[in-house]
Amino acid sequence: MLKLSIDRKAVRHCAGISRRSALRVGAGGLISGLTLPRILELQAKAALPTGAKAKSCIFLFLEGGPPHQDMWDPKPDAPSEYSGPFKAISTNVPGTFVTDQLPLCSQMADKYTIVRSHSHDDGGHTTGYHLLMTGHKAAFADGDNPVPNNAYYPSLGSVVSRSLGSRGPVPSYINLPHPMAAGGPGFYGTQHAPFVIDADPSQPDFAVRDLFPSGPGSSSRQRLRNQLLSGIDQLERVRNHGPAEVLSKYYERAYSLISSPNAKRAFDIKEEPDEVRQMYGHTQLGQCALLARRLVESGCRFVGVDAPGWDVHFNCFPSLRTDLIPYADRAFSGLITDLERRGLLDETLVVMMGEMGRTPKINAGAGRDHWSMAQSIVFAGGGTQPGRVIGATDEHAAAPVTQPVTVNDVLRTITTLLGIDPDRVYWDPLGRPVPVVADGGLIENLV
Question: DSSP string of 278-342?
């Protein structure tokens, strides 16, 4: 059996989540669990409506809650217990300021737009994650940490998978470097679950091992698997002409991915010149962003990058200064620069956000706590208007003073930019109608 499995424990945020996941592929997996053939099931295809520019979305999720006032929404005139130690600097867009921890992004602010007025009322990590990925409140308490945790409502990536389908040799929906907590397909079914790359592309030994079966006799073993499946198909078609034939098509697509040189090439980040890899940064987030570019270039519709580590409650500023913000600065600026050079920015929507912002006032432990009432989101490409700041917060970055941008505003805007009708209704297994996005409107001045 082919297997992608990396057993490791990684502390995600204050809840102490440990992630351990495996993706199994092969004939043995056809009767149990999530399999690549199931993931690659023939997906519903819909033509992009006139005017939709975005063909793909790269979703950089800074898990834990990036501090908006220390990055995209500085408050230099506020008292130091609110403004923090970082200084505001001008960007290449007159009148737009970010903090001095974003020097690379500051020089390309004409390529993206900052939405400073995003706000919601869920300050939990897992529940907030669920809300942002599905548009619906979680039915569980924060701290319940199964992955995925959206058992009923489909995630944004699964919506994209079902609505648009595949356009190349790679899966339509991919998560890296591990599963997104609320990135599951919900009632859409496992055929719209993400293909998970559970490995760190910044590591020297990185490989998507399912695509590169190794060892003596690996090719012959794969041929035997296909022969075995073919025999099973012939028997089942005699008994039932429908399901086995459909399942065979799914398996053929999975085998096509495993045996496709183009698919293997898309996942092979080592093909990139060293100067390109340096432009993104030799960090987990940087190399995930680079791999995401390779995947959308090869036809992936939605790449969700889950970047942990942002839940810093105590003594946060050394970590923000040395690790977190510089890595995000380089990864985001490198991604936008690279997409533009390759002529892909107009057709690739890039979104960077977390599940919440951080408290306006620095706490007694020299950190910032959970704060969902205000957060900044950065959008680029894919039909968005660049070089803008949308919305504003008060003098302490505590709450919007302009019309708040809701979660469903964000989801409706993303789906619309991708050419998906957000009002389209799918029916759950009990026959209940569930729209792609329940309510909300387009983010004004972004589209």
Answer: HHH-SSHHHHHHHHHHHHHHTT-SEEEEEE------SSHHHHIIIIIHHHHHHHHHHHHHHHHHT
Cis peptide before 185, with omega less than 30 degrees from 0?
Answer: no
Q: What is the pLDDT of residues 145-202, one digit of tens each?
A: 899 999 999 999 999 999 999 898 999 999 999 999 999 999 999 999 999 999 999 9
Question: How many distinct structural domains can be found in the chain?
Answer: 1
Give domain status of residue 233, yes or no: no
Q: Is there a domain that residue 248 lies in? A: no
Output DSSP code: residue 94: T
In terms of residue numbers, what domain contains 361?
Answer: 48-211+273-435
CB 15, CB 143: distance < 8 Å: yes
Complete edge-to-edge strand list for the sheet that includes strand 388-390: 195-196, 173-176, 302-307, 56-62, 348-353, 375-380, 112-118, 388-390
Q: How many CB atoms lie within 10 A of CB 3?
A: 14
- Residue 206, number of CB atoms within 10 A of its CB: 18
Structure tokens at 384: 């968005």
Q: Locate tokens 């930019």: which residue?
A: 417
Angle at 271 between CA 269 and CA 277, to 5 degrees: 60
The residue assigned the tokens 């900052």 is 114
In terms of C-beta density within 10 A (0-12 exposed, 13-18 middle, 19 or more buried), how is residue 330 classed? buried
Predicted model pTM:
0.85
